[in-house]
Every structure is written in C-alpha cells, then in structure tokens.
Amino acid sequence: MRNRPRSRPLTAFSLLAAAAALAGCEESNRYVAPPPPQVAVAHPVQQKVTGYLEATGSLAAVNTVDLVARVAGFVEAIDYKDGSAVKKGTSLFAIERQPYKLKLDQSKAAEEGAKAALVQSEAEFKRQQDLQSRGVSTQANYDKALAQRDTDKSNLEQAQVNTATAAINYGYTLVQAPFDGVVTARQVSVGEYVGASNSPTKLATIVQLDPIWVNFNVSEQDVQRVRADLQRRGLKVSDLRQIPVEVGLQTETGYPHKGMLDYAAPTVDPSTGTLAARGVISNPNIELLPGYFVRVRVPLEAKEALLVPDVAIGSDQAGRYVLVVNADNVVEQRKVEPGFVVGDMRVIENGLKPDDRVVVDGVLRAIPGQKVDPKMQTAQPKAAAN
Question: Model's pTM, two decimal places?
C-alpha cells in the first residue's frame, strides 16, 4: 500500500510522452500536394505562307494514236525498232507501194489526156461560136461544140479527182509518225497482208510522252478557294492557264515536276461533289509515264497565317484541338480548324490568337482544367520539301 503514490508520477509522465510522440507522428504524415507538371509552351508562329490545293491524280498521254493500214497490201518494210522514240514524219511501215504508184501514174496520164481533149474542144467551140456570129455555121454545129467542150471539162475534173485519190492512196502506203513519241511493239510482220478486212489493221501504237497530262479532282470547297484566290489576284476563270501545278511521284520527296493548269470542267459533278481538272507537265526526261498515280498540288496566293507544330494538334469526336495554357496556368482545350502542312508545322485557319500559349511538349501531362508549370519555348518551323 505504501508504494502506490510513487507510481502515479511515472504514469503521468508516460502519458505526456505518448501524447508528444503521437503529435510528432501526425506532423510527419500530413499530405503535401505535388508540384504542377512541367510542359513546354510556345506562341503560334506568324509568317507568310503559300497555301496549296492538294489532290491525288493520274498521268495520261497528251496524244495516243493507233497506227493502222488504210490501204490493202503486203507489208514491205518496218522502219523502226520496237519501243523507240521517233520524230514527227518518220516512216514506220511501208505497204506494197508499187501497185499504188502505178495507179497514180495511170491517173496522171488520164488527166493529161483529158486536158488535151479539153484544149481541142475549147478551140472547136470558139471556132463554131465565131462562125455562127458571122452566119456561116449552123446552130446544130454550135450546140455540138458546146456540149463537147462541157463534156471534156467534166472529164478533166473527174481525172483530177482520180489523180488526187490515187495520190492519197499512194501516200497511205507509207505509215508515218503523226507526232513526236514512242512507238509500241509492232503487231504485224514483214510480208503479212494487211488492210483487207472491213476494219483497218492495227500496226502499232504511238504515244506522246512530253509533255504529259495529269488528271485530278478537287472538292467543291477547293473550287471555291481557287475562285476566291483568282479574284484576289485579279484573274478570271478563263485565266486558269496562268496557275502553276506541281506533281510528285509516290516515291519522290516534294513536288519536283512543274507545269501549268490546262483545263477545268465547267460544272461540278453532283454525284461526287468534285470538279475535274487537268494540268500539263513538262517531261523531257520521260520520268513520268501514263498510268502513274501521283501527288498533285496547286499553289495559291501567299498570305499571313498562324502555325503550330503538327504534333501539338489532337483530335476527338468533336474535331481537332490544341491545348492552351491560360493566364492562370490552367490548361484549356481549344477547338481549332487546321489547314495545310508547312514542313513540320500546320496552319491554323481558325481558333487561335497570336498571344496564345500552346502546349508543344508534354501534351500527355497537360490535363484540361488542371494547373501546369509552363516553360516558354520558341517554335522553329522546318522548311518543307519542294
């Protein structure tokens, strides 16, 4: 019983120590919010850029002609090698020329005979006309001389037609290149009889490769853009041939092949909402062949624009957007209307202002509605390939 009072001070001290320990534990376990994530931001780049109308097109030959036999006969000679390039007027096939040369000579002889007969009948007519005027010859003799003169005149005209026809047929015995181009493999052999059937015999095909056409379609919206661009430049729709067109193969970088617009359809196809257009491209090295699918772009007038890195643009069900950091360093999702690409940058048609801070790096850490630690950068556009 005497030891109990001594134990009370020890118990109180223990309670005070335990309370102090608990207080220290609560102090060390208090929640401290993490710092906002760092993101890189940049103002949109302001610069003058050239807009482009882009499409996919196909190449077609400006001229493609089947060479046919227009007269019947045996093939005497083939004067080219399959697949060779030839100039306009080059002789390619010869078809049994001698019979047609004889017919031409025969027609020329008949024409000379008709001329001689007309000269004689014309002289007789004038003589009878003179005699009748003096009352020496009868009306019957005059009428006979007049009829003979008119008959000989008709015979001469017929002989001249026969000569012209024979000359044309004789010319058909030489099949010549109608323009500069490449001739395909021959479809006949020397000694083969051609031109006897109802339809002309196909001998080969010649294709013009320089220049070459590129056919493509543009949307209704692009048609309106081009028309508006023409108006700003003071041009009319009839001045389309003053607008350049550029072409690149699928395996090429940029658009190295240059040309001019050549044709645009007068109406938009209502079933597709597109308008057919065509450009003509210089092709001196025959790098472009008919049938190739190519990338096409038509440069429009240069104008001031805002650009952001293409990687900064996201998309969702509502459309395209960028993340913008406001004055309170809070992330906002801003809906934008993107335009064409310039190097690694993309033009923003609507939705941004020059002083907006766009998230260009750390997009995954930027959550709309939450604060971030923005670090300002300067966007450096890379040049686009020509």
Answer: 0.69
